[in-house]
Amino acid sequence: MIAVQGGFDYNALLNSYPPNSVERQVLEAMQNSTTTYRFDSLGVLQFELSVRRELVLSAEKLNKSYLSFATFQDSRCNEDYWERTPNGGFLLKRGVSAADAINDIFTNGRKYATECATAMVIVHYKALLEVYKKELFERTFTSIYLMDWELRQPLLREISVPRKVSELLLGDRGYFNNPDVDPKTPWWQGENVIVLPNNLFYGHGIGIRTADQIIQSLNRSRRQGATRTAYLMDSAARPNYQRLYNVMPRPAAEPQPIEAPVIALSPVSVVPEEQAEIPMPVAAEPETVQEARSPLVWRAFPAPISRG
Amino acid sequence: MNEEINPNEVQSLEELRNANGNEACKQTFAAMCSTNPERAAELLNQGDTSFPCLFAVLPEVRANALEGNLSANSNIAACVVNQIENENAVEDYLSEKSEENAAVLRWILETGYNDYSLGDGYLKVLDIVSAVLIITYEEKSILPLVENMIFERHRRGLCIHDLVWAFFRMEDFSVMKMVAGHLNAGDENEANFAANLLHLPDNGPGNRAAQYEEYVNWLEENEPFLFFTYEGMQYTSEPNVVDVDQERKYMHKTSRIFGYDPLEADNENEQACLLEFRELKNSEQKALSNYSHKIYRENQQAWQEWMSRPVSQQLEAARAGEEGMV
Asked: How many Cβ contacts (< 8 angstroms) between chains A and B?
């Protein structure tokens, strides 16, 4: 269920969104959940719904962008905007527009190649660009580092650490694990995905597919003699929507966050992430996890195996 | 071509490369290929040639169709590189287990692990060779080399993800001790990186020795109940590669398990305990399993008596015991 501080009219909010919209589907999933999704204000809830909509749209756009799949050692980027770091990541060049650099991945996808986790990070930045708009996005993200889950960005830290959830919601980052992956192709040890409508998932390198199709695809990259199938994990990584909401300009009636929300990181930050983080109000987290209501069948991680 | 090097006077490609670098070695080898390809292949097949040297001149070997002149081992190594570079390669030297192939893979790693002059493609070869040796061949002798590569690459800011993933796939807790040894490193970055790999908190530079002691003790105490989670850096920025199976610690089922495997009870009493145990909060499960392990080691008869009580009473005793009241 959904709990908003001060209360809210669920039906009125639901009906403010078109039928079958991402926002509506997320609202219904939250309301029907055994988990209580708590929000400090209606604004935070509406913001989360907007970001989730853009996460879905950005994933669909990235799938059509001709961004190639490559390991970090084979990664490439448009050097007009990005510097390729020695470990295969992409660092926003000084003096270029962060918004233009993110958009360039979607418009000049053929100039880029990376693996599945970095693609998830790109989707999150693009979604926030669409919600924040260019000016606020560039004030907020003065440095962007695209390299797996090494984000160097406290505002987005939570998307790098999945937690067990009772259900996957549209826009969540999920993960298919492939425990018996072939050592010749370690990059297929799993697949990061964005949850899309109609029981579909976007995973870079595999495309937009059903869970079964992704599992089949991963299973084709298992080692000889493999006994365990790939599977969807019962975890998701969700950004701290409250903290991201605090970046937004606030109507006069609503209190401003305690700390200035704009965070600027140097391209190569020497400040440990823990210390660099600006204290923010705690985001709404699921309070209880009782039983999964998702149509997907969950399996514990890691998959069982025993050896003598 | 380097004018100071006369290809006819070269006695060892390895020495040439060590003295003059990759580019001079490649150019000299290319010149030899055009004038005396048999001599070029002969030099490459000498016993002192390392894998990095072979890798450096491999484009020239291919361009001059010298593969047939390579020694059997060098040819396998060249095929391994081709297989890794080319998804559609026909020959497969990485899937089928064979002692001959394993020996070449070990040679690649032993002579090549410490070379950082040949670029990303070279490092990718080392990543996959390491993964195949660890997962397919369970080759423990290479673990110190992989450990060295992980820490050296981290120091140089190079990609470590697949190497770290492969290292922890050995499914031997000695790898955790190897990493823990770096907690005592004088280099703070190295010690912090080791702490991250072990999923330990940043205790600061002054407390690393204590953290090492604590971790090794934890590892030894819990080893019978540990399992590898298979979490990797592709999944999370905070992988926790080894965890305690609290159920097995609680029931004192010491069989070695790789990967989490839900415990099955041997009798009705165990089944009842397990069902209740699974309903407890994580903190309560941990308290109960720690206490169970403690009294088991001290007095097995007392442990059996304690296990026969309802879980609520076990928990009460555990709490009291932890406070020194029992």
From this structure: 124
* Top mean-pLDDT range of A229-233, A259-263, B303-307: A229-233
Residues B179, A227, A212, A233, CA torsion sign: negative
* Host domain of residue B285: 263-326
Burial of B178 (0-12, 13-18, 19+ CB in 10 A): buried
Residue B205 within any structural domain of the chain: no
Average pLDDT on B39-64 reads: 94
| C-alpha pair distances (Å), B209 with each of B174, B243, B255 | 19, 22, 31
Query: With a CB-CB cutoff of 8 Å, which residues 195-224 of chain B face chain A?
Result: 202
> What per-residue confidence (pLDDT) applies to A119?
98
**B259–A186 CB contact, under 8 Å:** no
Contact A183 B255 (CB under 8 A): no
Tens digits of residue pLDDT in A250-268: 766 565 554 443 333 333 3
- Tens digit of each residue's pLDDT (9 = 90 or more) over B164-179: 999 999 988 999 999 9
B124 touches chain A (CB under 8 A): yes
Give the residue from chain A lying closest to B130, CA to CA. A183
Share of chain A above pLDDT 90, in %: 80
Disruptive mutation site among A69, A75, A83, A87 for chain B (greatest number of B CBs within 10 Å): A87
Return residues 286-325 of B near A (CB < 8 Å): none
List the end-to-end C-alpha distance of chain B, in Å, as a whole number.
82
Structural domain includes residue B17: no
Count of domains for chain B? 1
